[in-house]
Design brief:
Layout: E1 12-23, E2 26-38, E3 43-47, H1 54-61, E4 69-74, E5 77-78, E6 87-89, H2 101-105, H3 107-111, H4 116-127, H5 145-158, E7 163-167, H6 175-191, E8 201-205, H7 209-215, E9 218-222, E10 229-234, H8 249-264
Parallel strand pairs: 3-8, 3-9, 6-7, 7-8
Antiparallel strand pairs: 1-2, 1-4, 4-5, 9-10
This protein binds adenosine-5'-triphosphate and magnesium ion.
Magnesium ion binds near residues 54, 55, 91 and 167.
């Protein structure tokens, strides 16, 4: 390592991550020399075919899985096998059916060591903003798909880390609800800019190219397994972005670029 530290430390820095799953005489190469940076306050999406290693990369970054090679760091601190440095929403919402909505929301914060009463008060204050006011005492089974996703996101927000890893947070939703959630997520992130606290940086996994373009500053395209980075596309549209942006000529042209990158691999 050289002593020359970069002028600005990226919020997320993944360098040369390679991983092979091994078991019962079988080897599955999943990630091949993946590197990517995310600036503080940035929103970067990761797209790629099913099984190319997107969720595996997030689990590595979340400190839950050690890669065979490479490094992953948040604000210059290695996260390898150090869970708790980021707020991570796994691909499945993992709500506990036997806890009410409010108790589900506080789960991650409590596991992270926050006093339960304080976690409950902070969660209760967020229910309105996440469109869940009045449902604090509902069971997960009594919530719609969109509400469950918002509750899982609320729980992730409550684990107040500057880096958010979101793995297909809207994957289970219909197209209309999904569009509503795009507007809503942008609003939540804007409202989230808290004086004196680090602005959040987001790494977002999705299969939906329009969703990626609408929400991101940059879209990273991965190849089929073993996943490599095959293209990075900058998305410079001004914010806030409305749903109607997707029919503009500039947007459609970027979408074509991304589709070509996915097909080229
Ligand atoms: N714990 C594990 N042990 C063995 N193989 C695994 C494990 N986790 C994932 N895999 C395999 O690694 C590959 C990549 O999985 P991963 O979940 O990272 O893909 P993905 O890009 O997130 O896919 P999707 O878009 O469908 O969510 C898959 O073939 C999967 O079967
Ligand atoms: Mg996945």
């Amino acid at each position: 390592m050289s002593d020359a530290s970069p002028v600005v430390t990226p919020a997320i820095q993944i360098t040369g991550v390679t991983h092979v799953f091994r078991g019962k005489g079988r080897e599955l190469a999943v990630l091949d020399n993946v590197s990517l940076d995310l600036p503080t306050g940035g929103f970067v999406s990761l797209v790629g075919p099913s099984g190319c290693g997107k969720s595996t990369l997030l689990r590595i970054l979340a400190g839950l899985l050690a890669p065979d090679q490479g490094s992953a760091a948040v604000a210059g601190v290695s996260t390898l096998l150090r869970p708790g440095l980021v707020s991570y929403m796994p691909q499945k919402d993992l709500l506990l059916p036997w806890r009410r909505a409010l108790a589900n929301a506080t789960l991650g914060a409590e596991v992270g060591g926050a006093p339960p009463a304080q976690a409950r008060a902070r969660a209760a204050a967020l229910f309105e903003r996440f469109g869940l006011a009045g449902f604090e005492r509902s069971w997960p089974a009594q919530l719609s798909g969109g509400m469950r996703q918002r509750l899982a996101l609320l729980r992730t927000f409550l684990i107040s880390r500057p880096v958010l890893l979101l793995d297909e947070p809207f994957g289970a939703l219909d197209a209309i609800t999904r569009r509503e959630m795009h507007t809503w997520l942008q609003q939540v992130l804007r409202d989230d800019e808290r004086p004196g606290e680090a602005v959040r940086s987001v790494l977002f996994v999705t299969h939906d190219i329009e969703e990626a373009l609408l929400l991101s500053d940059r879209v990273v395209v991965m190849s089929p397994r073993p996943g490599r980075v095959v293209a990075e596309v900058s998305v410079a549209f001004a914010r806030p972005r409305s749903a109607s942006l997707v029919v503009s000529a500039e947007f459609v042209a970027l979408k074509a670029t991304l589709l070509a990158a996915l097909e080229r691999r």
